[in-house]
Amino acid sequence: MKSQKLKSIIEGMLFLAGEEGLNAKQISEVTDQPVQTVQIAIEELQADLKKARRGIQVVNIAGGYQLSTIRAHAEYYERLAYSPSRSSLSQAALETLSIVAYRQPITRIEIEEIRGVKSERAIYTLVNKDLIQETGRAEAIGRPILYGTTKSFLDYFGLGNIRELPDASAFENAEDLEGETQLLFERLEEQVHSEDIEALEELGEELTEIAEDMVSDQRSGAEERSTSDQTISTPSDSSKNTPLD
């Protein structure tokens, strides 16, 4: 296999593997290339990405390889994560979040088996929004990461604890992802509606206070003018008793 093709394949494999990464032996088995050849290709790929000043790099972590962003661009990724235009949850993210919420702790592979599609991007989004987090490692081959919800998740949906999640026991199918997602979506709508009502109530109270202050000021002004008018129009006792020349 030509070197450029092997490097291209490795780059794609690392993208699909995501945070789990791959080691040289795994890549070797899939590509049917010697481990040494794979390692050389990875080193060349690392050099190519660096030379081209790409926004991604291949990093070696605990004996495995992962695709990663470069540290120099970290501030832009942080802006993206907290961008107001990305504050709402996509359907994919909401589905993934409902799976984690109702089945935690759970691995990425288990999430993807339930959804039937790759979920790495959705998981990445939820982690960045602090709605889910790593809670440990599963007792399975490769020790995959386990995910669970966070305190921010409870705050986001207005829940006191995880037991206050909408009850999904009414569904006949225990794997009813659509039903669970709808429950979570409705809960989110309720929370947003509740926050809107609270904001309107606070605004109403502020407007009422302003109106009361204005009325009070107007009354005070009217009383001052009335007192002033009476002082001007009412003759004093001394002027009444003074004889005309």
- The strand count comes to 5
Sheet/helix structural class: mainly alpha
User: Which spans have pLDDT < 50 for at least 5 consecutive residues?
Assistant: 192-197, 236-240
Residue share in helices? 55-70%
Spatial gap, N to C terminus: 131 Å
Oligomer: single chain
Question: Total number of helical segments?
Answer: 10
What order do the helices and strands come in, and which of them pair?
Blueprint (H helix, E strand, L loop, with lengths): L2 H15 L6 H8 L3 H17 L4 E6 L2 E6 L4 H8 L9 H13 L2 E2 H8 L4 H9 L3 E6 L7 E5 L1 H6 L20 H57 L3 H5 L4
Task: Report on the architecture of this protein.
The protein is mainly α. Helix content is 60%, strand content 10%. The chain has helices at 3-17, 24-31, 35-51, 74-81, 91-103, 108-115, 120-128, 151-156, 177-233, 237-241; strands at residues 56-61, 64-69, 106-107, 132-137, 145-149. The strands form 2 sheets. It has a 3-stranded antiparallel β-sheet. A two-stranded antiparallel ribbon has the order 1-2. A hairpin with a 7-residue loop joins strand 4 and strand 5. The longest helix is centred in the last third of the chain and has 57 residues, at 177-233. The protein is elongated and about 100 Å long.
